[in-house]
Amino acid sequence: MSTPAPARAPSDRRTSTLGSSSSKRQSTALPKPSSIFLDPSVLIAQHAQLTGTHPITVGPNTVLHPHCKISSAHAPVVMWEGVVVYERARVGVENPRVMRTDTSRGDGVVLGKNVVIETGCVIEASEIGEGSVIEVGANIGVGCVIGEFCTISASTLLPPNTHIPDFTVVYSGLEKRVNKTLQSRPELQQAKVVMHTKQLEIFKKLVPNNVSKWT
Amino acid sequence: MAQPFPYTYYSCDCYDSKVAPNPPKRASQPPPADDEDERTFDPRNARSNYSLYPLEHLLYCEDCQQIRCQRCVIEETLNWFCPSCLFEVPSSVIKSDGNRCTRNCYNCPVCTSPMTVNTLEDPTDPSSSGGPWILACPYCQWSTVEIGIEFEKHTGITSQLSRIANGGKTIPTAKERDKERERRKEIEMRKKDRDYFSGSEDSPSTDKDEGITPSHDDLFSNLSAFYKSQMASQTPSNPFSPHEINFSSPSSFSRIMNLYSSTTHKKQKREKPSPMREAASVHEGLNIHDPATDAAAIERIKRSGWSSTLSSSQKLAQPNPSIRFDSELRPVASLLQTKRGKRCRNCRHILSKPESKITSTRYKIKLLALNHIPRLSIRALSPIPLTTTQPVLYDYDRLRSGIPTHFLLHLSNPLFDPIRVTLATPSTTPGKIQSRVTILCPQFDVGANTDVWDDALSSTLSPIKKPTSIGPDGNPQTSIEAGKIWDRGRNWTSVVLEVVPGFLIQPLGSKEEEELEEDEDVLEIPIFVRLEFEADVNAEERGLGDSRGTEGKREKREEAFWTVVGVGRIVGN
Questions:
Q1: 137-176 in chain B: CB under 8 A from chain A
Q2: Chain B residue closest in CA terms to A135
Q3: Model confidence over A156-172: pLDDT tens digits?
Q4: Would an 8 Å CB–CB cutoff place B110 in contact with chain A?
Q5: Which residue of A153, A190, A198 is in closest CB contact with B139?
Q6: At residue A15, does pLDDT exceed 50?
Q7: Above 50 in pLDDT, residue B543?
């Protein structure tokens, strides 16, 4: 069964079978976004999807794992350097009807430096600060603002327009506590950044890069 | 044990065996009648709720040949182990060290998840011993850094933790505490002597830290040492020597006085518990409440906010439950778990015994009622053939009153011998709503649970098929007749039960507006099951004389029990 290729000339189909064989299985195959700004050092795996009409900006050393979906259908998406998005995570506003109450930030999703979005998450937040970890299966609503070095533990549902201050851990539903270990020891923050950099290098070696499809 | 309809519960006999054998001399009520056995089982009775269990919850004692429910078994622990490190702890160590893991297993005081030992070393600059170590929680990210504790090595956390208090100060060991206590006692004695002459309370050699409230552990060790000395003073080596009278112990006082006071029979006085005096000072364990600590706590809350206080469940899990703030938290050692075996309460026969290997979930001995008692189950027998393409599920929650409905009672036999079953049920169900129940075939046989291949090859038990008529759906339909079973298989038989559900609201004439209580509209049928079968007489007879001559002979055995079959809810039409 031939892949339902994006609505373009058939010559593109040949390149896609060679390079990625990316099967855009959904019937609503959106055309490639007109404005994707990729840094040359970005790693985009096979089957990752970047869709939507608004601009998507991806900073240096970012890693997008297979089957992750970055959607700028309703608002732009900006990812700073060192962001890692794991499999089947969805980044981007999906429900435009939910209003944001905090209009100090622009429309769209901003992921700060070294943010890790783990498997299966749904991120519609306005901003996620530097160094934060969003663990497996979390669901961050529209307009949320998450501070730096936060940890949102697995399967948490954050309602829209929640504000999470820096160094907070959200666990057990909506319990919050301040991660004083990280807050009081800047060397632990440094160590975290160093380990993250090492992980990015390992990804570069192990995951085949399909960024040529998107440039 | 709420189950969806239809269900079957079995009644264990233990609930009515505890009737007092000797009625008290002045009984206000006559003892219950002796005909309890003949009385029908009433599932609505509040007491019967405690004796009904699904078949999977019951064990069976082969010696007593009776069902044993969870209340007629005695549990005994086989071994203790830690659920995190899976290390077995011998029971002698449990008696001395307690029921918590003494290795490296700790639970987070904030979220109770198991903690891991992490290192604080810089990944770019590794140190020799692996850096200072901490306990960290992988879920809520709490770590011992928040209470100021770091470890030197990553093993033996328990011993390291018992020496460090929050904030890095060292905790003295028991020996050091004893020395401190002796030293302070001497200072107190000297102070008392000095105060006779000087009048002042100040003396230059007082301890600097008298004003600090002693910690929880200090108080405990002081108090236990004090009570030990009290108990020691009650049993001096020579009771008659006047030099060893300890005037601070009221028990020795009373003993000396008793020696001099009376010569009458003092047996009662000797059985009184020996009196001890109470702790009188801080170094004996007395903790006088200081209002300054309360004021300090209030200031602390003002400063750090509500989030720095602890919830009651966090406090209760701590070794010292009177702490208030999260800087006083300590890691909680993991509780040990046990593997237990069950014994019959009457004859102490082992009913269930797990394997001693901790990681294995199998059982060495497993005497289940499932393997000794036939399983009853009920389902609706729809007389209307299914003509539609979609199978319509019978709705057990909507039984219609007044309409005779047929149900199929299915009995399957787990024993290796064929059994003869007699069923009995009261003609109307007990309780407010009276439904009429008739078992169309109360006595029948069920085949033995032989191998499938044995039966296929020998085919001694020919399936009984009644004269059938082809129904509208093309399948052969058996007719519902009284006195005949419905169907039979290798080790099961099914019979028909006819039920006329009763009316929910009483017809005119009775009291009006009697609201039905919860669950009174549930149709439950008590069925008395009696089995008769022949079994081999083998090692069940423990006596010596019988077993030699009766090998190979068959013995007639009989078992009987009550069951309650829950059919559904009645909805009036």
A1: 139-143, 145-146
A2: B139
A3: 999 999 999 999 999 98
A4: yes
A5: A153
A6: no
A7: no
The CATH superfamily holding the domain A31-214 is Hexapeptide repeat proteins (2.160.10.10)
Domain span at B418: 7-58+369-507+516-571
The whole-angstrom separation of Cα B567 and Cα B149 is: 62
In a domain, B232, yes or no: no
The span from the CA of B224 to the CA of B211, in Å, is 22
Q: Is residue B374 domain-resident?
A: yes
Distance CA B98, CA A30 (A): 65
**Residue-wise pLDDT tens digits, B39-63:** 667 777 777 778 889 999 999 998 8
Say which residues have a Cβ less than 8 Å from residue A32's Cβ, sequence separation at least 6. Answer: A6, A50, A51, A214
Domain ranges of chain A: 31-214
A36 at interface of B, judged by CB pairs closer than 8 A: no
Q: Is residue B395 part of a domain?
A: yes
**Among candidates B227, B211, B210, B206, which has minimal Cα distance to B285?**
B227
Q: Does B307 touch chain A (CB under 8 A)?
A: yes
Contact between A187 and B122 using a beta-carbon 8 Å cutoff: yes
Residue indicated by tokens 């970890």: A133
Q: Alpha-carbon distance B102 to B93, whole Å? A: 10
Look at residue A87 in the predicted model and tell me its pLDDT: 94
B143 with A177: Cβ contact below 8 A = no
Residue A102 has pLDDT above 90, yes or no: no
pLDDT (0 to 100) of residue B362: 93
Residue B316 resides in a domain: no
Q: What is the pTM of this model?
A: 0.72
Q: Which residues contact B202 (CB under 8 A, 6 or more apart)?
A: none
Residues of B in Cβ contact (< 8 Å) with A156: none
Is the interface score ipTM higher than 0.85? no
| A-B Cβ pairs (cutoff 8 Å, strict) | 38
A138: exposed, middle or buried (Cβ count in 10 Å: 0-12, 13-18, 19+): buried
Q: For B123, which residue in chain A has the nearest alpha carbon?
A: A191
